[in-house]
Amino acid sequence: MNRVLVTGGTGYIGSHTVVELMEKGFDVVIIDNLSNSQIEVLDGIAGITGKRPDFEQVDLRDKANTFNVFRKYPDIGSIIHFAAFKAVGESVEKPLEYYHNNINSLIYLLEAMNAFRVNNFVFSSSCTVYGEPDTLPVTENAPIKKASSPYGNTKQICEEILQDALIPNPDFKIISLRYFNPIGAHPSALIGELPVGVPNNLVPFITQTAIGLRDELRVFGNDYNTPDGYGIRDYINVVDLSRAHVIAIERLLENRQKQKFEIFNLGTGKGLSVLEIIQTFERITGKKLKYRVVDRRDGDVEQVYADPSYANNELGWKAEKTLEETLLSAWSWEKYIRSKYNAKG
Ligand code: NAD
Ligand code: WQD
């Protein structure tokens, strides 16, 4: 029962986690419908680990085929559930698609856990559940604020569903990991973040601007009540983040939980401003970034960064990579994918 089902495993964080799991000796099966990722990601994973993970192209909204995966792999002992739609702005345009995908996928997986007696579950949650926090850094006990988008609301609802699902299922064990801002790529540059269309997030927008794919970066506001006026976030390296998932799985499998439902913040504990990110990127790459300050973006919070001490102490996990190496990994990845696409024509 050493196999881990990774939903969304060809996606950004999922693919990096699959690598970390395989390098620790776990068998993996990925479910992904490729709605926001590409099948070539499996080549990248194989290039790093020397082995191709099992892959099932299934939409988790398709209950029958989701159940078939559990039939096909009876050794599934735990699940990491990454698969979801994640674009905040798009969720405002298409709320029902977001509720439908993010919530039904979770419900079918929980039903499958019941039916196939799988008890261990790790959920991808988000710092978005804290909204604009009253105190910084944010601990896991900070109040959940009314979600500012349907996307954020799906994360809140999913966490509630998970807690309710535990009540009649005393064997279930669940860990919810609340990520802050994941950035960067695998140091091999064989996998990374591949946004479809115009990126919403800061770092892919920076690397695409630096490589000439975008004219300029629009910086959303420099009149915040922060030391330099720019918005502040907690940027966490994606490989560091992925390692925490392996530790969470081991904790579940070895019955080391303190409670049946545990929540951990995954961040560095350090808040950095947009300007600091831009300046660091320029310094390490030697490239001048074209950017312009524009109005604040609707729905943005001023500043949010984690208190990761609970994860540090309980999981024995800590963010280790520097901002410099993380931004360099994002840049190496950007150069790699552009050369690949240009070569393909
Ligand atoms: P991603 O879009 O790169 O990966 C998600 C994967 O899930 C994609 O490969 C997509 O094809 C797949 N998927 C979506 N719906 C599916 C369905 N119904 N059936 C099967 N596959 C489906 O996103 P990511 O950045 O890797 O995020 C992974 C998880 O982490 C998500 O749950 C996201 O909400 C959460 N999260 C992400 C961030 C972030 O900034 N990237 C921050 C906090 C939380
Ligand atoms: C970071 C900073 C922007 C783009 C989002 C989701 C959150 C979570 C993580 C999933 C902010 C500024 C950005 C640009 C800019 N995801 N920025 N110009 O908004 O902190 O968090 O991803 O759960 O829920 O909301 O991340 O990368 O979009 O922005 O100035 O073109 O960069 O204003 O200060 P965000 P981001």
Topology:
Blueprint: E1 3-7, H1 12-23, E2 27-31, H2 41-49, E3 54-56, H3 63-72, E4 76-81, H4 88-93, H5 95-116, E5 120-126, H6 150-166, E6 173-179, E7 181-183, H7 202-210, E8 217-220, E9 232-233, E10 235-237, H8 238-253, E11 261-266, E12 272-273, H9 274-285, E13 291-294, H10 309-315, H11 323-344
Parallel strand pairs: 1-2, 1-4, 2-3, 4-5, 5-6, 6-11, 7-10, 8-13
Antiparallel strand pairs: 9-12
Helix pairs in contact: 1-2, 1-8, 3-5, 5-6, 7-11, 9-11
Q: Assign a percent range to the helix content.
A: 40-55%
Unreliable runs: none
Tally of strands: 13
Bound molecules: nicotinamide-adenine-dinucleotide, UDP-4-deoxy-4-formamido-beta-L-arabinopyranose
Strands of the widest sheet, in order across it, are 3-2-1-4-5-6-11
Indicate the structural class. Answer: alpha/beta
Largest sheet: 7 strands, parallel
The helix count comes to 11
First-to-last CA distance: 44 Å
How do the SSEs run, as a string of H and E?
A: EHEHEHEHHEHEEHEEEHEEHEHH
The coarse silhouette is globular
How confident is the prediction overall: mean pLDDT? 97
Instruction: Please state the CA-atom Rg, rounded to the nearest Å.
Output: 19 Å
Beta-strand percent range: 15-25%
